[in-house]
Amino acid sequence: MEFFLESILNGICMGSIYGLTALGLTVIFGVLKVINFAHGSLIMVSMYVAYWAIIYTGVHPYVALIIVVPVMYFFGYYLQDIVIKPIFKAEKDVREPITVIIVTTGVWYILDNLTLLIFGPQYRGIQNNPLRGKMLDIGNMLISVPKLWGFVTAVITAAAVYWFLQKTRTGRAIRATSLDREAASLMGINQFKIYNIAFGIGTAIVGISAVTLVPFYNIFPSVGVLFDIKGFIIVVLGGLGSIGGAIIGGIIIGLIESIAPMFMTATWAEAIVYGLFLVVLFVKPSGLFGVKYDW
Amino acid sequence: MSFLEVKNIDVFYGDVQVIFDLSLEVMEGEVVSIIGGNGAGKSTLLKTISGLINPAKGEIVFEHAPIQTAPPEEIVERGIIQVPEGRRLFTLMSVKDNLIIGAYNSRAEKNVAETMEDVYSLLPKLKERESQLAMTLSGGEQQMVAVGRGLMARPKLLMLDEPSLGLAPILIKDIFRTVREIANQGTTVLLVEQDVKHSLSLSDRGYVLEHGRIAMEGPADKLLDDPHIKTAYLGL
Are B81 and A186 in contact (CB < 8 Å)? Predict the structure, then answer.
């Protein structure tokens, strides 16, 4: 029984980290209406930034947030501004610009291979960090400490993003642009600047998720792919553009991954994840927490 | 002296020309109606003034400055505000947030609370509804939010695109009364309408748009008496 509870708690913690990686994706999608295929690569880049920041300064992994968040914000901001925006402008009248999706796929390949070229294929991990391998002992249960930190970070980040979108001037402008681009323009909102900011925020959230991962996860050029597909599933499961949905969706995936292996071969857990994904698409295409509304 | 002057513009949607060599002007403090049937190019004209579409030829001058190539956000900054056709509210945001978004431009942003008081006193219904999501309102209420949102931007020139569209006759009266009141408070209004009788009777001047060209223009009361308008638009 305790073993079962232990799996649940660890599943929730890991799942909330998945949710955090998906949160960045959902923010970007919510505003730009573009599935960002470079998402996994942004996680990978963030992990490298976090890795080098921690290795060079020797600080506690979470202190690296001070470096990673602004670096990734501007990385995302200018990636949208320089690479994606021109394509957007060329397809101004298209509601769901397909070419933009293709461009993000190109960005994915370029970033992954550039990283391979510069840093090589080897796996890196931060061996001597105060969180690595730490376990919290409650009764007979062992809870992973770095994942627990990840859980707390995910909840705080989601709450902060929600507050920002609801209560600030820029947050309102982001929501307005996400609901109706043209009407937002008529309010004096520069939609392309809002796209830049939303992309920056989404990428900064990805940076936060990378910081929660590096204390216990290996870093290598194709690491993003592992989170890429999970991210898409979570976002669709939770409801496109829904902040709470991303975290809850992540936790559902985390729970399946940690509980299912107790009853079956671990590889079957993946099948359950995809099965659930298909069921949700059939039954409630807008996702568990998505608003039934035309994006 | 003209406040807004549109000089000989040609506008295309893709390859299709919608507006042909069109000129019009609006004086400060006036209420001007642009009337015409479906597909005459009325909405296109407003979108062009708002900067959503750029004219292929010609000039648009507002307060002595050419604006035909300026992006929409800059035109809003200058004080031209469009209340779009079909209301286009931010449906999943509260009424209050819709109004606050209206005051996004830098001139309006400094006085949000004050402007909101004015808007609420003009449209008291909105205050009751302020925390409701915009999508839960009735059509007439939504149109009021759209007008209120436009006023929040502190317009020098308010352009209304078919505010009566899809509303019950009694609500149409309400909306036109509100428009007249806005004009009485000193805002210049450019009104695009299919409801010829109501819009001309509250306007100073009118333009009749047919197939992307100005077919007639003149003082509103003269237009109302015109035999062509009587047969073509009023069904008399």
Answer: yes
